[in-house]
Specification:
The complex is a heterodimer. Chain A is mainly α. Chain A has a domain of 83 residues: Cytochrome C3, CATH 3.90.10. In chain A, 38% of the residues lie in helices and 3% in strands. A two-stranded antiparallel ribbon of chain A has the order 1-2. In chain A, a hairpin with a 2-residue loop joins strand 1 and strand 2. Chain A is elongated. Chain B has a single domain, classed as Fumarate Reductase Cytochrome B subunit, CATH 1.20.950. In chain B, helix 3 crosses helix 11. The longest helix of chain B is centred in the first third of the chain and has 28 residues. The radius of gyration of chain B is 20 Å and the shape is globular. The termini of chain B are far apart. The chains are: A mainly alpha, B mainly alpha.
Chain lengths: 130, 219
């Protein structure tokens, strides 16, 4: 019994030690992040995303993969939307006009591609790095 | 690795929920069959009225006499059981996943609040473990299995807490979090966790005997 208690105490001590020394990673603030100003009270830091580096590494040349234009339900071929912010079509909350909210649009656009190609981050904290 | 994550966060979630729900139904059927075979005289005094009376009496915090005799234990137990549901169900990152899968969404706790509540859940589990070692009548009834179950419930909360803070081994931590959460769901029907649905049956049994046979209260 005492052994178990000592062991549990030791584990707790280990956690505390790791917690105390792990939050001082330098340089994370300098990462290029997505702008979260559209959100009233963002709960997570903006996702880390270096546009040009990402596309070079991923070999993406078509802008309209992400900067697409939709006419109702159909995507307009050959047209892209680099000039307008994503939030122009994807509002904060899903609505009848656009069922895909801003955060869902980002989450699915990034993660689905990363799952399909089996490359890149797919878990919350892999993009929303503290 | 992404393919593995896609599996444990996709099909495996369905498998876990199916085992959880079908397992509980299976367990109920087994218990009812068992009662029919061995104790069918229970039905001669089983009463809906006294069953519900007992269930409701025991749902009210500190209403039953014995809960007032161990106020600290019951207070912690009430809080623990509430948080066990509130924290995962109203956690923002869980709701985000459900929203992306089913376009459903509901009220979410603030992340910082959920973080504190998670610590409370883990502390409650530590309390339960210490209680099993220190209270003689509880210690007498405790087996190794009971500690294993406490650790299994604690795992999704501890890994979730560590993953949220991104302290170390983030990817492995989330994987451990998802798998341990699924493990809890899968184990519910086949372990003491089944008191989740069995407890009302116990109350129905006791409530009916006390109300209908002894004409007394069972709280």
């Amino acid at each position: 019994m005492t052994r178990t208690l000592v062991f549990m105490g030791f584990i707790l001590f280990l956690f505390t030690a790791v917690v105390a020394f792990s939050n001082t990673e330098p340089g994370t603030d300098e990462l290029e992040r997505l702008d979260t100003s559209a959100f009233e009270k963002p709960q997570r830091p903006g996702a880390v995303f270096g546009h040009d580096d990402h596309n070079e590494m991923a070999g993406i040349e078509d802008c309209d993969v992400c900067h697409h234009v939709y006419d109702g339900k159909n995507r307009v071929e050959g047209e892209s939307s680099e000039d307008s912010p994503c939030s122009e079509c994807h509002s904060l909350k899903a609505n009848p006009e656009n069922l895909i909210s801003l955060s869902v649009a980002y989450h699915k656009r990034c993660r689905n591609c990363h799952f399909e190609t089996n490359k890149g981050p797919v878990l919350c904290g892999e993009c929303h790095i503290k | 690795m992404n393919a593995f994550i896609a599996f444990i966060m996709g099909p495996m979630v369905w498998i876990a929920f199916l085992i959880f729900i079908l397992g509980l139904i299976f367990k109920l059927v087994v218990i009812i069959k068992d009662v029919n075979a061995r104790e069918s005289y229970v039905y001669s005094y089983l009463s809906v009225k006294y069953s519900l009376r007992s269930i409701f009496a025991w749902l009210i915090p500190f209403f039953p006499q014995s809960t007032r005799q161990s106020p600290v234990f019951y207070a912690i137990s009430y809080i623990f059981h509430l948080l066990l549901f509130i924290v995962p169900v109203f956690l923002m990152s869980h709701i985000v996943l459900v929203n992306e899968a089913f376009q459903l969404s509901w009220f979410a706790l603030d992340d910082t609040l959920a973080d504190i509540l998670t610590v409370i859940v883990v502390l409650a589990l530590v309390f339960f473990a210490v209680r099993r070692q220190t209270v003689p009548e509880v210690k007498y009834l405790t087996s190794f299995n009971d500690y294993v179950l406490l650790i299994i419930v604690a795992l999704p909360f501890i890994t979730g807490f560590l993953a949220y803070h991104q302290f170390f081994f983030y990817r492995q931590m989330v994987i451990a979090h998802v798998i341990s959460g699924e493990l809890v769901l899968i184990l519910i029907p086949f372990s003491k966790f089944s008191h989740m649905v069995m407890a009302p049956l116990t109350r129905a049994y006791m409530g009916s005997e006390f109300g209908n046979v002894r004409h007394a209260k069972d709280w």
